Amino acid sequence: MIRYTIPLIEPLRTQHQYAPHVLASRSALSRRDFLASLAAATTGTLLPNSPLPALRHSLGASVGLIDVHHHVLPPVYLAVARDRIIAQGQKYLPATVLQWTPENTLAEMDRGGVTTAIVSISTPGVWFGDLDADRRLARECNEYAAGLVRDHPGRFGFFAAVPLPDIEGSLREIGYALDALHADGIGLMTSYGDRWPGDPTFTRVFEELNRRSTVVYVHPTGPNCCRNLIPYIPYVMTELPHDTTRAITSLLFAGAFARFRNIRFIFSHAGGTLPMVAGRIARQGRAIPELSEKVPNGVEYELKRLYYEIAGSANRPAVAALTSLVPTSQILFGSDYPWGRIAMTADAMAEVGLSAPDIQAIGRDNALTLFARLKR
Length: 376
Fold this sequence. Notes:
The chain is globular, with a radius of gyration of 20 Å. The chain is built from 16 helices and 10 strands. It has helices spanning 31-42, 53-59, 75-87, 95-98, 102-112, 131-151, 167-179, 203-211, 235-253, 256-259, 274-287, 289-292, 299-305, 316-325, 342-349, 356-370; strands at 22-23, 65-71, 92-93, 114-120, 156-161, 185-189, 215-219, 264-267, 307-309, 331-332. The strands form 2 sheets. Strands 2-4-5-6-7-8-9-10 form an 8-stranded parallel sheet. By secondary structure, the chain is of the alpha/beta class. The longest helix has 21 residues, at 131-151. It has one domain: TIM Barrel, CATH 3.20.20. The two termini are 34 Å apart. Strand 6 (185-189), helix 8 and strand 7 (215-219) form a beta-alpha-beta unit.
């Protein structure tokens, strides 16, 4: 998460507990009062525009980034999800989230050198336990995203949301999103309550995604087990990267990567903690026959085939670990806007020891291999 200097809407218990964002409290304010107070409190307080000097030094004046980790917040979604985000322990929401509009996101893209953003729904996704309502929410979010693509040619693509763990609803939405709305791929979460994507109950969904040779973007979330392990530390600090590792390991040893060869998977935040524990996973996997048989080509082979985007992870330790694990052809640019600012990852990408050709590949060219329509 990104730090903003924003006045509080109501005081916290202690001064030092205030960190990144604006307090969002259902008990203190109504939704209307909250948003009105937020707008008044945050006027003129966001970070200044970044000229991206380091990135432009590497790539020239026209940056042309393709951002594959960029979130859309349709009004219908924010109305439903805001309270759920708070209930899950994310007590502070950035003004950029609560004030998201297409106009604001386009302005941020222009400041950050992003030509095209492939938008998606962030955690907690579109499943809230009401079958019919969640199917409608997924449909409305996907139609909204398709409208962005239509209304702003060349500036947007989208990963369609599906209401997993509702299998039938998800299969229906995959067909509609890819066939009628022409989505660029499907967005999934790293877990659904107490199940990870390698769970056999999700097999039919992955069979369909494989049949369609789909690009699948997997965004982290907090599983039921782990949102309040350390009560005073927001789960987004540690559990989101850990859950990406759980999701990858889940798919790996369910045999999904070996079986569903046509799916192109993208994982967030440089693979979470995976690069640091990949060697351990590979070693242990080889030692356990019932696991090793699910990965006939070896763990390292499968991990090198996946794609990883680097939102919030463009720092030397993370990039060094990731580039030690996979070739730069498997790395993509992402920003996590509006939860993060584009400039933070964009300019940092030019300061972590990557060559100019690698920056060009990560920033744009690798995405063009996945999204051929963007070449037109």
